[in-house]
Amino acid sequence: MIVVMKSDSTRGDIDRILERLTRVNLSGHLSQGVERTVIGVVGETQLHPELRNELELMAGVEDVVSISKPYKLASREFQPADTVIEVGNVKIGGGDLVVMAGPCAVESERQVIETARAVKAAGATVLRGGAFKPRSSPYTFRGMGEEGLKILAKARAETGMPIITEVLSPQDVELVARYADILQLGARNMQNYILLDEVGKTRMPVMLKRGLSATIQEWLLSAEYILAQGNRQVMLCERGIRTFETYTRNTMDVSAIPSAHRLSHLPVIADPSHGTGKWYLVPPLALASVAAGADGLMVEVHPSPDQAVSDGAQSLTFENFSKMMVQVKLIHNLFRSDTVAAT
Ligand code: PEP
Ligand code: MN
C-alpha cells in the first residue's frame, strides 16, 4: 500500500501518518520527489483492513493505493525516486555511470593488480574479480577462495578501487562480506532463496544478476527477498538470457534495462561480457546498454585473454577496454539527460 501526499502537505502531516503506522507495527518508507511525497507502507497491511479508510481521511493525504505488482519494495510504485547506492565515492543509480571491470576469476596477485591499474586508468571505478567461481563443469577452475579475496583487498589498497566479488553460498556470506564492498549474486543463484535472505540480513550493497532463464518479474521478486530483510542497497544486473540462439553464449536482453527501470527504482547494471560471450560483441552491447539507460557496466578484462583460466573468449584486452571506454563516455554524455525515468 502507498500513501500519496498532497503537494501542500506538511512535515507534521507526514509525521502523523508515520506515527499511525508505527502504532500497528507497520513502518513508512518516505520517498520525497520533486513534486510530491509518497509513503510506502512496509509490513503486513492485510492484517489492518481498517487502515486504508483511516489514512484516506488524514490531513495532507491525496490518495491511498494498493501496489499492483507481486513485488512491493522493489516497485516504482512503492518508491518513485531512483535508489542511489554509495560505495565510497562511487554513486550507483540516479544518472551516474559506474563501470566495474576486472578479470572473470582472480588468478594471481600480479594479474589482478595489473588489471586494476589498467582499468582504473581507462576510467573504471569498481574492480571485479571472482574468488568463488560458479562453473558449469566441476572439472574446471573453481576459484582461489579466501586467498583470492585477499588479493582483491590488496588491489583495493593499491588503487583505492572498491571491489565486487561473488558469494556462492549462504555460509560464505560473512567471509566474503569481510573483504568485499559489493556482494555479487550470480545468475545461477538468483533463485537461491536462502542465500538471498542471508545477503538481505547484511547491510552491504548487493548486485543481483538475472537468472539464465528468469523473467523480469522473477528477477524483481528475487530482489524483493533481499529488500524484505531490510537491505535496501540492491542493484540489478542484466547478463543475458538463454534463447534458441547458439552463436552467442547468451542473448543480451537490452530491453530488460528500460523495462526494469520502468518497473523498479533499483539501479540496473549491464554485463555484456556474459551477455554475449564474445569479446568483439562486448563494446557494441556496452554502448547499446548505456544508450538504453543502464546505470553501469560490468566488463571482464584480462592482461592476456588467451591465457585466462575462465571466460577468456569474452574478456577484453587492456587496449580494447580503453577504446571502449572512450565511446562509453561519449554515449553516456549524450543520453544521460533522463533516459532513466522511462515513463
Ligand atoms: C561472473 O560474473 O563471473 C559470473 C559467473 O557471472 P554470471 O553469474 O552472470 O554467469
Ligand atoms: Mn565470467
Structure description:
This protein is α/β, with parallel strands linked by helices. It folds into two domains: 2-65, 2-Layer Sandwich (Alpha-Beta Plaits), CATH 3.30.70.1140; 85-342, Alpha-Beta Barrel (TIM Barrel), CATH 3.20.20.70. It has eleven helices and 14 strands. It has helices at residues 11-23, 51-57, 109-121, 146-159, 173-179, 193-201, 216-228, 256-263, 272-276, 282-291, 318-335, and strands at residues 2-5, 27-32, 37-42, 61-65, 85-87, 90-92, 98-102, 126-128, 163-166, 182-185, 206-209, 234-238, 268-270, 296-300. The strands form three sheets. An eight-stranded parallel barrel has the order 7-8-9-10-11-12-13-14, surrounded by six helices. Strands 2-3-1-4 form a four-stranded antiparallel sheet, with helices on one face. Strands 5-6 form a two-stranded antiparallel ribbon. Helix 10 packs parallel to helix 11 (318-335). It is elongated, with a radius of gyration of 21 Å. The model is unreliable at 339-343 (pLDDT under 50). Phosphoenolpyruvate binds next to loops.
